[in-house]
Amino acid sequence: MSIQHIAIIMDGNGRWATQRKRPRTLGHQAGVKSVRKTIETTVKAGIPHLTLFAFSSENWNRPEKEVSKLMDLFLSSIQKETPELNAKGVQLNFIGDLSRFSDKLQIKMQQAAANVPENQRLMLNIAVNYGGQWDILQAAKQCCEKVIESPDLLPHLGVDEFASHLSLADQPAVDILIRTGGEHRISNFLLWQSAYAEIFFEDVLWPDFDENHFQSVVDRFLNRERRFGQTSEQVNA
Ligand code: IPE
Ligand code: IPE
Ligand code: MG
């Protein structure tokens, strides 16, 4: 069973810092190290798609100071990490409503996502100001526009056509969805794209997530039976 796509809700940075009596932003900084390690592990494992939830559409509701520190951290991390990522054959792609970010950050994201000409080993999607509901709604609006123009299309509008308007349209569905930090919820992440994902809720806080946790999830995934609606007998036939 080959793994094509892992998606991660990187949660627990704030608690990691609070446990150490440090400001929450220190937890976000520590989280960047886990991001770096996880990208390396994914490349090593030969898994071609990784999607990381970095900032949700709801995270704007956090204290202004934390949001602004997060924006600074995005900017500096993109600047610092992109050359090495490109050298490793990692293609960056940002998903979410990017229009709410500063012009400076939007330009940095565009530059970082410019194509790596060859040696594409990993498609790394970073979800920022992303919400699964937003994604489905924006796809629905695009479909509505098409149907308004050509009403005959409506009866033929199927799942695949609709999905082609979503973020990650040209990428495989999520096989493994990991949430660190111990909460058992999806928090408006890839709602459509995770329709048949195997979900792993891990207690480890994101800054402590390492290669061993990654491997443990992969091992447990390989022991699960994905039935996609069929019976166990059918799957094993
Ligand atoms: C996830 O960690 C990072 C972002 C949402 C940006 P949190 O900051 O949510 O950490 P906890 O859940 O408060 O510990
Ligand atoms: C989800 O974490 C978003 C990211 C990890 C970027 P949150 O910490 O924001 O989720 P809730 O609010 O606890 O559901
Ligand atoms: Mg959290």
Give a topology summary.
Layout: E1 5-9, H1 13-19, H2 24-44, E2 49-56, H3 64-87, E3 90-95, H4 103-112, E4 122-130, H5 132-149, H6 159-163, E5 176-179, E6 198-201, H7 211-222, H8 232-236
Parallel strand pairs: 1-2, 1-5, 2-4, 3-4, 5-6
Helix pairs in contact: 1-2, 2-3, 3-4
The structure holds 3-methylbut-3-enyl trihydrogen diphosphate (IPE) (2 copies) and magnesium ion.
Ligands (ions, cofactors included) = 3-methylbut-3-enyl trihydrogen diphosphate, magnesium ion
Low-confidence stretches: none
Number of strands: 6
Q: Any idea what the shape is? A: globular
Average pLDDT taken over every residue: 96
Derived structural class: alpha/beta
The string of secondary-structure elements, in order, is: EHHEHEHEHHEEHH
Strand content: 15-25%
Head-to-tail CA distance between termini: 15 Å
- Rg, nearest Å: 19 Å
Describe the biggest sheet? 6 strands, parallel
